[in-house]
Amino acid sequence: EVQLVESGGGLVQPGGSLRLSCAASGFTLSGYAMSWVRQAPGKGLEQVSVIHSSGGSTRYADSVKGRFAISRDNAKNTLYLQMNNLKPEDTAVYCCAKFDSSTWVYGMDYWGKGTLVTVSS
Fold it and tell me: What is the CA radius of gyration of the chain?
């Protein structure tokens, strides 16, 4: 059974940093591209970042470019999202998601339940 479990969310002040983790099980992480997506209160889903199965290629939404960094440790079956210089508009539930191939060309087929990030003073 595929499982994705996020952790690392919480309350942080503007300008602060958080590191999210996504523990993957039930499949071989190294074979699949992964993504972080978020949903802010009252808003739709936003794809924050994607990473190739090898970790060699990444993409970011313009809203987080230069502040967030996606990475993966395939040996530990874990996906990460380092978030720096956080802004109130980054407040959202952050979920990790698995693509059904090594790249993000095709769709995502599994999602975690998410971890809440609140940026507020």
Answer: 13
CB 73 within 8 A of CB 22: no
* C-beta of residue 80 within 8 angstroms of C-beta of residue 20: yes
Strands 10-12 and 115-119: parallel
Residue 106 pLDDT exceeds 90: no
**Tokens coding 84:** 């720096």
pLDDT digits (tens, 9 = 90+) for 35-69: 999 999 999 999 999 999 998 999 999 999 999 99
Report the alpha-carbon distance of residue 77 to residue 95 in Å, rounded.
16
Q: For residue 92, what are its two tokens?
A: 């959202």
How many Å apart are CA 63 and CA 71, to the nearest integer? 18
Distance of CA 40 to the CA centre of its chain: 14
76 vs 22: CA distance, rounded Å? 10
Mean pLDDT to the nearest integer, 83-107: 94
| Positive/negative CA dihedral, 58, 62, 63, 64 | positive
